[in-house]
Each structure stands twice: as structure tokens, then as C-alpha cells.
Specification:
The complex is a heterodimer of chains A (214) and B (152). By secondary structure, chain A is mostly beta strands. Chain A folds into 2 domains: 1-32; 35-208, Immunoglobulin-like. Chain A is built from 2 helices and 10 strands. Chain A has helices at residues 4-29, 95-98; strands at 38-51, 57-68, 77-92, 106-119, 126-132, 137-138, 156-161, 166-171, 181-192, 198-208. Chain A is elongated and about 85 Å long. Chain A starts with a helix and ends in a 6-residue tail after the last strand. With 152 residues, chain B is mostly helical. Classes of the chains: A mainly beta (214), B mainly alpha (152). Chain A binds chain B through residues 1-5, 7-8, 10-12, 14-15, 18-19, 21-22, 25-26, 29, 74-76, 193, and chain B through 1, 29, 57-58, 63-64, 66-67, 70-71, 74-75, 78, 81-82, 85-86, 89-91, 94, 98, 102, 105-106, 109-112. Chain B: Residues 127-152 are annotated as: Disordered. Chain B: The chain crosses the membrane at residues 68-89, 95-116.
């Protein structure tokens, strides 16, 4: 503390350290907030349901999304990122149908994001929006060679036998979305001004895709 | 900064301190606000009669006061900012209060105000200092003898 520069340095350093501690306490205060959001997603219409030239199934929906996320906002909230996703299962046990070798079967949950938005203040947190899906609802076809235990249900496997060896040729075709039942989930990420980011979701079940293309 | 070559075990004389200040005038912290030793120039008259900040060092008690004052002020402002920001649910209010607190603390603590110089250092009297001269380092005489032996 013997000189001007020394004291100035001490003040600035201590001030920044205390600022860091204060920000940590602000972030901890977010845990005292118990949010109670509500959300509802209605599929008003399925506009079209087609198979694309590259083999993927694609759906276009008209959605009505209404939600009340105002209880998520605290004094330490900068913005809330919301997105609506459709989730459905894709079972992976094709190999059992064709060979006697038991293969592992994995169940993957595909999550396709249909709409997202950013809410920047508590006043805008209670919203109602009528829109077609912002992003395409496509089931991705897998391409390229895969290990034996990761095939799709709707794969066609061509086994070609030559004189010397057996070749396994696998064609990947996009999973059928026809007649699929899926969940609509509303996810949110609460982005703080300082500290920890919280993320959570609401799952809504009971949505079906039609059996036929239209 | 003027380098004060203190020896912890002997306090230098007041005259000695003035010498270092004169010897390194440019390294004084705000060179324009120099304390004039000879108040002959008219431009420096402005600063002679208003010694708001002493440009020399703080005394020891003052330094301790400055440090504790800084710590207490910063913590108090941080707690106040946190409390007021939380009750008003405004992050911006908290940051503004804290920033104001930091600036105020810097204004109070960093410059060398007079109330940090209440307990002046007791310098040794110049007459007293002359009675106790600085110890001389003994020049070793053995090397001289060796060189004379080699010559022979």
C-alpha cells in the first residue's frame, strides 16, 4: 500500500474478485425459483406427406403452439430459447429377420426440431403462435456402410454370392414415417445473465402421422 | 517512484529522503504536481499552497487504514448491491450500485489524502545520524600481500 500504483492495483483486483463472488451468488439465487410453465401444441393440419427423391419421408404440419413460460424468468434471466421437437422411435433390429445370428437391437429416438424462438422478456413469455413448421420434418436416410448391428428396419439387404466370397451390399432407405406415433416436446433453455444455464422440457404425447402419403 | 533505500534496522535521516526526491524528480507520480523545494517559479505557486495530496508515501498507519478501508468499503457495497438488486429484481441496478461503489472506494483509498498521514514517521535527527555513521565494508588486506609476494 506504499504507492499510488500499488493501491490502485489492489482496489481493482479486489473489486473484480468480489464481483466474481457476487455473480456466483446471483447464479445460486436462481435455484430458489421454482418454475411452473405450461405448454400446448396442437397439430391443426397435415399439409402434405411425401417421399422425397433421395428416399426420405417428409411431412409438413400446421401447428398451433401456445405456452406460458413467464415463471421461468428471474432477475438473472437474459433470454429463454424455446424449441418444439417431434420425437419418435426408430428400432434397429433388422438383422434378426434375415440371419440366424442374433444381433444387438438398438432403439434410437429421433428428434426433429420443428420450430424455435427466443423470448427476451417476461412480457413476451406468454405467447400463442399459429405457424407451419419452421424447419423441415424429415426422416433422414442413412448413407454409407455401417457395421452390422446398426441397420434400419426398412433396409434392403442384397446378399450376392460369388464363387469365392460373400459380399454384403446394404442399401439404406429412410425410415418409414407412415403411421408413426410421435411425441411433441417443448424444450427450453433459460440463458442467464451470469452463471448456470437451466434446460428442461414438457413432453406431450398422442400425435400420429397418417398411414398413407398425401 | 523515488527509490527510498531504507534499511529496516536504521531509519534514514530526513535530509536523506529529500535528497532522493531531488535526485529522481521525473519518477515522481504526477510530475506536473511536483512539490517545489525552492518556491521561486510562479507556475508552481498554485501547488505550494494547496497540498491536497501528499505526493510522498503514506505513513504506515495510513497504509493500514487505506487497506482496511478499501476492503470494508468494497464488501459493503457488494452486499448492498446484491441486496438491493435482489429486492428490486434488477440486475442492472446491482451492477450500477457496485460500479459506483468501486469508483468511490478508489477515490477514497488510492490518492494520498491528508488523513492517511496523521501518524508521521519519526525520522532520525540529522545530528543523531552523524553520530552513528554507516558501517564501512572492510577492504581485505591479504590480497595486497599476495601480489607483493608474487612480484618478488
Amino acid at each position: 500500500m506504499h504507492s499510488f500504483g500499488y493501491r490502485a492495483n489492489a482496489v481493482v483486483t479486489f473489486a473484480v474478485t468480489i464481483l466474481a463472488v457476487t455473480c456466483a451468488m446471483v447464479s445460486l439465487s436462481d435455484n430458489f425459483n421454482s418454475p411452473s410453465p405450461t405448454a400446448d401444441v396442437k397439430v391443426l393440419n397435415i399439409n402434405w406427406f411425401q417421399k422425397q427423391p433421395n428416399g426420405n419421408d417428409e411431412v409438413s404440419l400446421t401447428l398451433n403452439i401456445s405456452a406460458d413460460l413467464s415463471s421461468l424468468f428471474t432477475w438473472n434471466t437474459k433470454q429463454v430459447f424455446v424449441f418444439v421437437a417431434a420425437e419418435y422411435e426408430t428400432p434397429q433390429n433388422a438383422l434378426n429377420q434375415f440371419t440366424s445370428v442374433t444381433a444387438c437391437s438398438f432403439v434410437f429416438v429421433a428428434q426433429v426440431s420443428l420450430w424455435d424462438g427466443i423470448i427476451q422478456s417476461k412480457e413476451h413469455a406468454k405467447f400463442w403462435i399459429h405457424t407451419t413448421n419452421k424447419y423441415r420434418f424429415t426422416d433422414q436416410a442413412r448413407d454409407g456402410p455401417f457395421p452390422l448391428y446398426l441397420y434400419d428396419t426398412s433396409l434392403l439387404m442384397y446378399i450376392t454370392i460369388t464363387s469365392s466370397s460373400i459380399f454384403l451390399l446394404v442399401l439404406a432407405i429412410g425410415n418409414n414415417l407412415r403411421g408413426k406415433d410421435y411425441n411433441m416436446t417443448l424444450h427450453w433453455h433459460i440463458m442467464p445473465k451470469t452463471g448456470k444455464m437451466f434446460a428442461d422440457k414438457i413432453v406431450m404425447t398422442g400425435y400420429y402421422l397418417p398411414q398413407d402419403y398425401k | 517512484m523515488p527509490t527510498n533505500d531504507f534499511n529496516l534496522f536504521s531509519t534514514p535521516s530526513k535530509r536523506h529522503l529529500g535528497d532522493t526526491f531531488l535526485r529522481y524528480p521525473r519518477s515522481a507520480p504526477a510530475a506536473a504536481l511536483r512539490f517545489p523545494i525552492s518556491s521561486s517559479s510562479s507556475s508552481s505557486r498554485l501547488f505550494v499552497y494547496a497540498p491536497i495530496c501528499n505526493l510522498r508515501l503514506m505513513d504506515w498507519q495510513g497504509q493500514k487504514r487505506a487497506e482496511t478501508l478499501m476492503q470494508i468499503l468494497l464488501v459493503v457495497f457488494a452486499v448492498a448491491a446484491l441486496g438491493i438488486g435482489y429486492t428490486l429484481a434488477s440486475f442492472q441496478t446491482m451492477m450500477l450500485i457496485y460500479a459506483g461503489g468501486v469508483v468511490l472506494t478508489a477515490l477514497i483509498t488510492v490518492p494520498n489524502w491528508p488523513f492517511f498521514n496523521r501518524h508521521h514517521l519519526k525520522w532520525l535527527d540529522p545530528s543523531e545520524a552523524e553520530k552513528h555513521p554507516k558501517p564501512q565494508v572492510n577492504v581485505p588486506t591479504t590480497t595486497k600481500k599476495k601480489s607483493s609476494k608474487n612480484k618478488q
